Give the backbone structure.
Amino acid sequence: MKLANIDNNRYHSKLKQDAGVIVLLLALLYFSEIYMIYNILATIGANVPIPFTLMGLYILFIILLLGIETLGCVGVYNSIKKHMFEFEYYD
């Protein structure tokens, strides 16, 4: 591992850029999924009454879905941060 020749400021700057891309990805995922779920529920809800318990399951599903995506993106960020010097990721 050649840590002596690595520009730390450059690496941390690029890591911040990668974090911005990950946040943008999460925002896009959140917006698109919530928009689709809203449209589906609005269309179904206009024609068929949705029981309260079923609505609770929908909300639980949405929370789990967004939570799993968030954990995945945080895992990607942590992996990049952990291995960026080891693999000379930004060179």
Q: What stands out?
A: The mean pLDDT is 86. Residues 8-47 form the longest helix (40 residues). The chain is about 80% helix and 0% strand. Helices lie at 8-47, 52-83.
